[in-house]
Amino acid sequence: MKNWLKALPRRLLAFVVASLGGYLLAAAFSTQSVLSSLADMGVTVTLGQRLAATAHDIAGMTGIFLPILAVGFLLAFLVTGLLMRWLDRWRTPLYVLAGGVAVLTVLLSLKASFGLMPIAGARTAAGLASQCVAGAIAGYLFALISPRVTRGSIKHAVAVSFA
């Protein structure tokens, strides 16, 4: 059996974990960005309210934001996987970069399509940066969990280094 076919179940698991992790962080970061703006206007926001709002947003954005992010991650990770043929040494940093760029591309594409940023927490530079950090962490999760397929074998990347 081909190495890439043997690695497919683990790659699918890595993709699901990375997509869910990136989505959960992006939704939570968005909520906290919006609540921070409210706090800057003098509104008191308790820890309980922050947690409740975060849980509400995670549940409420799952049907739209999660699939959009997953498509972005899919495209970014596929392209990065192709680059691994020549740049395997840079595997982890490239997947981290791919995840961050995927989120940035998704959000800027949505803004261009709708004329406004549909994710309220990404309407400021800091909010947009936090969304990209969520994507970068998703890329790291993918690099960490997915197997490294080489020409002769499959190496499961559990301990991933940047070198």
Features of this protein?
163 residues; mainly alpha; 5 helices; 2 strands; elongated; disordered C terminus
Question: What can you tell me about this protein's structure?
Answer:
The protein has one domain. Mean pLDDT is 87; it is low at 156-163. The protein has a two-stranded antiparallel ribbon with strand order 1-2. It is elongated, with a radius of gyration of 17 Å. With 163 residues, the protein is mainly alpha-helical. The chain has helices at 3-40, 47-61, 65-87, 91-114, 125-145, and strands at residues 147-149, 154-156.
Secondary structure topology:
Layout: H1 3-40, H2 47-61, H3 65-87, H4 91-114, H5 125-145, E1 147-149, E2 154-156
Helix pairs in contact: 1-2, 1-3, 1-5, 3-4, 4-5
What letter string, H or E per element, gives the SSE order? HHHHHEE
Structural class: mainly alpha
Task: Please describe the biggest sheet, giving its number of strands, its sense, and whether it closes into a barrel.
Answer: 2 strands, antiparallel
Number of domains: 1
Shape: elongated
- Sheet with the most strands: spatial strand order: 1-2
Give the oligomeric state.
single chain
Question: What value does the average pLDDT take?
Answer: 87
The share of residues in extended strands comes to under 5%
pLDDT < 50 runs, ≥5 residues: 156-163
Please tally the helical runs, counting DSSP H or I stretches of 4 or more residues: 5
Rounded Rg:
17 Å
| Strand element count | 2
